[in-house]
Amino acid sequence: MIDVHAHLNFKDYQKDLNQVIKKSVAAGVTKIICVSSNIADSKRAIKIARQYPNIVFPAVGIHPQQTDPNNKTPLKEQIAELKKLAFQKQVVAIAECGLDYSPAPPGEKDRSKKDQYYLFEAQLQIAKDLRLPVQIHSRKTYPDTLTVLQNHPGLTGAWHCYSEGKKGIDPISNLGFYFGVDGNLTYDQGLQNVFAKIPLEKILLETDAPFLTPEPHRGERNEPAYLTYLAKKLAEMKKTSLKKIDKVTTENTKNLFAKIKMC
């Protein structure tokens, strides 16, 4: 299986990253996309990928909220640096980027809508220029996020941690995007009802580790190894085998992320 969205570059894994990756591979989750939320994260994602070739693949990006609140570098300079990082041969995507109108959590800072739009548009342009897919972060911003993406035809990508209900399925499918599903599927009946309507051929498996830990480990730090619990729940919902879930979602991932397909 492939975890398309995990934050192995977060401080949560500083002490035991090697064990976490070994545990993941032993569980059958043999490839992980390490997603970033700022420039420092992006550099660390590339470093981790070099340490674990063909297992960890870096995605570089800047989150709509400021996850590095002490960084005073102008946004224009950050975008220029991000584009340089995106040229690194290991990088498989621009992620995560998007819009977020909810209050920033502790340790982060809110950005103005103007700054969020600038970062989002600039990152979509980098993705276009380098022919990389994107992973979209959207919280309380569905109409605005959708409008921005509709204004950038030709992009490929996935809607990270999809939670826009049944109403969003067709518009996002029409963009050619995939739907990322996370560990909350194991305990959220409403989300289960939504993903029951999404074809398996449009679904990607992701943990969002260290967040959104699935049952039976809810309340603990999430890890890529726990992707198996999500896959089992999806198999139960779709009334199919775990083997098919693995096969189809892996094919979906490789179709979207061309550099992974070559490994």
Commentary on this structure:
The structure is a single chain. With 263 residues, the protein is α/β, with parallel strands linked by helices. Helix content is 40%, strand content 14%. It has ten helices and eight strands. It has helices at residues 17-26, 39-51, 75-86, 113-130, 142-150, 169-174, 189-195, 227-238, 242-256, 258-261, and strands spanning 2-6, 31-34, 56-60, 93-100, 134-139, 157-159, 178-181, 203-205. An eight-stranded parallel sheet has the order 1-2-3-4-5-6-7-8. Strand 1 (2-6), helix 1 and strand 2 (31-34) form a beta-alpha-beta unit. The longest helix has 18 residues, at 113-130. The relative contact order is 0.15. The model has no long low-confidence stretch (mean pLDDT 97).
Furnish the topology, listing elements before pairings.
Blueprint: E1 2-6, H1 17-26, E2 31-34, H2 39-51, E3 56-60, H3 75-86, E4 93-100, H4 113-130, E5 134-139, H5 142-150, E6 157-159, H6 169-174, E7 178-181, H7 189-195, E8 203-205, H8 227-238, H9 242-256, H10 258-261
Parallel strand pairs: 1-2, 2-3, 3-4, 4-5, 5-6, 6-7, 7-8
Helix pairs in contact: 2-3, 3-4, 8-9
